[in-house]
Structures are given as C-alpha cells and as structure tokens.
Amino acid sequence: MGPMNIFNSIRQLSLGHLKPMEGAVKSYKRLGRGPASKGGKSGRGQKGQKARGSVPRLFEGGQTPMWKKLPIIGFKRPHARVYNEIKLEKIQDFWNNGRIPLKEGDTLSIGKMKRYGIVSGTIKDGVKILSNGKENFKVPLNIEASKASIPAIRTINKNGFKYTSVYHSKLGLTAHINPNRFYLKKGYLPLQARPTHKRDIKYYSNPLKKGYLLEDRSILLDRLENYQVKREVPKSSLDLQLEQASTKKFNDYHQTKVINMSDL
C-alpha cells in the first residue's frame, strides 16, 4: 500500500467524511407536486378516513379491542405510603467514618438520620430500614424508624440493641424532623398523632414488627376485645302496649293478690 493510499484511508476516517450506513436513511418523497409524484390524491386513494386523516392506534374497526378484553389484574393503592429506604450497610459506613456523633446505646431516630445526612432529599412518609449489609452490621445504637424488614430487625436485636417501629403522621413527621420550625412560628410542638387506620394499628402493635404501641397497651383498647355489639330492634306499638299491660298495677288490688269470694 502506497503512501497516498494510506493518506486517503486516514482521510476517510475523519469527521468530515462521516456518513450514515447504506439504507439507514430513506429519502423523503415529495407528494402532491404533479402527476409524476402522485399529485392527484397523494397516494391516499379517494375519500374516506384514511384519505382525510389517520386511524387511531389499536383501533380494530369498531369491535371491542384486545386491550379491553383482557382483565385488570392487581390493585395499586392510591394512598399508599412512600418510604425512604435506608440500608444497614449505609448506617454502618456512616458509623465507621465517624459521621454519627452518638454514644453507644443512644437512639438513632428519623430526625437524627436526616440531620446527619443518612437520609438525603425529601422524606415523604417516613423511613424504612432494609437488611442489605446485615453480615457486617455492628452499630451499637438503638434505632427508630417507620418500618423495617424482618431480617433487619433481627440483626439489630442480635447485636444486643433495640429497634422500634414508630408511626408518624404528615404533621408529626414534619415536627419530628424540623422542630424549630414550630417553636419559632407557634411556640409549641404538636403532639404526635396515633394511628387511626386499622392497617396501621395492626402493624404498630405487632410484636414481630416491634411496634411502639406494645409499650402502652392502654391505647389499643384491649378491653373491647370481648365486647359484643348488641343489635337493638325497634319495638312495635303492639309490643309496647303488651309491655305496659304486663307491668300495670291497679289501685284496689295487685295482680298477684289472692282474693276470697267472701270478701267481695
């Protein structure tokens, strides 16, 4: 290969000689510019929906389309809570680097996670602890979060420390993360609301989930477990008359009084 051939081959690799692959680009055909380029109807034929416009996608000529014949499977809760997921390995990494200024045995809550940077961004409904990195987790702290997986709870308890699932409402979570906002604006901190939904009450009173409601059983209203609701059936007018007649007393004698015929 001569020098000129090498030079020409190098020139073909320059940016100025880039071009698409053969067949990758299709030239546009101008329609409606005379008989030579389908100038009459532009290749659409005469009249009709296809000549004037276009047929919607997935349209099957008026019959029930396939996407309507298939059943709807599953359900997505429109008000499902969204939790920020935190892995155990991230908490361990922060502890190893000295980014958690707590003493051994202290409690790592959601507010402290946000303050120390373990949770970044906006916390919408709470924090959930995941068990990723549980093999090397040795953080000597008690942890409070909205939820946690069963392996994560077992790992924390295995180290000799306590995990607690705590419920926070929208207002309560804001007050827990940023209490100064309420102290400066209103002068007081709103009380933490208790769960009202049956699903939340069941979760935060579950021993497997280490719910905080187990510490105060009075708010669970255990006394109502054996309570039976009695249905009150309205009495008819005849029943009321019979009830009054059975308890009615006369002035001259009682209904249970024995009367001798000689006394009459």
UniProtKB/TrEMBL annotation:
<dbReference type="InterPro" id="IPR036227">
    <property type="entry name" value="Ribosomal_uL15/eL18_sf"/>
</dbReference>
<keyword id="KW-0687">Ribonucleoprotein</keyword>
<comment type="similarity">
    <text>Belongs to the universal ribosomal protein uL15 family.</text>
</comment>
<dbReference type="GO" id="GO:0003735">
    <property type="term" value="F:structural constituent of ribosome"/>
</dbReference>
<feature type="domain" description="Large ribosomal subunit protein uL15/eL18">
    <location>
        <begin position="85"/>
        <end position="160"/>
    </location>
</feature>
<dbReference type="GO" id="GO:0005762">
    <property type="term" value="C:mitochondrial large ribosomal subunit"/>
</dbReference>
<dbReference type="InterPro" id="IPR030878">
    <property type="entry name" value="Ribosomal_uL15"/>
</dbReference>
<dbReference type="InterPro" id="IPR021131">
    <property type="entry name" value="Ribosomal_uL15/eL18"/>
</dbReference>
<feature type="region of interest" description="Disordered">
    <location>
        <begin position="30"/>
        <end position="58"/>
    </location>
</feature>
<dbReference type="GO" id="GO:0006412">
    <property type="term" value="P:translation"/>
</dbReference>
<dbReference type="Pfam" id="PF00828">
    <property type="entry name" value="Ribosomal_L27A"/>
</dbReference>
<keyword id="KW-0689">Ribosomal protein</keyword>
<protein>
    <submittedName>
        <fullName>Ribosomal protein L15</fullName>
    </submittedName>
</protein>
<dbReference type="InterPro" id="IPR005749">
    <property type="entry name" value="Ribosomal_uL15_bac-type"/>
</dbReference>
